[in-house]
User: What shape does this take?
Amino acid sequence: MPISSDSYPIADNFVRLEKESSTDGRFAIVGEWGSWLDIDAIKKDGYEVEPDNCPHTFGVSSGTFESPLVFKMWSTNIHEQLITGDKSFDIVPDGKAYFIDLTKGEISQTEGGDLRIWVKYPEQTVHTQFYDWSCEIDVINGGLQPGDSYSMFSAPTDGYVPSFSLQRKIRGGGRGSIGDKKFYVMLKNGKVFGRIQIDLVAPFNVGIPGLIRLSYVINPSGSRILR
Assistant: This one.
């Protein structure tokens, strides 16, 4: 598996390297130094690299045989039948719960579905004062786990918690948000896995007091593969 990269010893100078990994996928760069390392391409017949793994720029990084830097690749034959969606839902941030069914891509105030979400912020505020802004995301019969990868192609087996919550102070007239959080989700008592990217915003604008932005990928088969 060839890996090509650029390392930069000094400004305006670089060294181009190409490495062939061993049969177990390991390779080493030894004796080079610089401020950063660019990985330009990782290639293997029948496989593709995860989008956030390549191209990728690293700072001063090092690995060992026991604790290597890891680049993930996937067989091009693995593509699951997934449920995907990209939704925006208007809400009222008064603390009342909304329920989202990820399979149907629908929201309601009737109990059920996969996610239970509420946001609370006063309707009337004064610009010179600060107010509580709070929210919660609960997974019904499941859990969630923060993720920071762009691709998030494989859901973890464990480490899930039932909910995410946030409480903060914002100035009257200001906008509160959780800031596009990414989570793995385990649904239906561990029978279904997926990933979501979600933002809760309140107030949103004059006509929309609150907004849920939600993108999701769900694998209904029970597999943890999310691609």
Notes: The CA atoms of residues 4 and 40 lie 6 Å apart. The chain is about 0% helix and 45% strand. Confidence is low (pLDDT under 50) at residues 7-11.
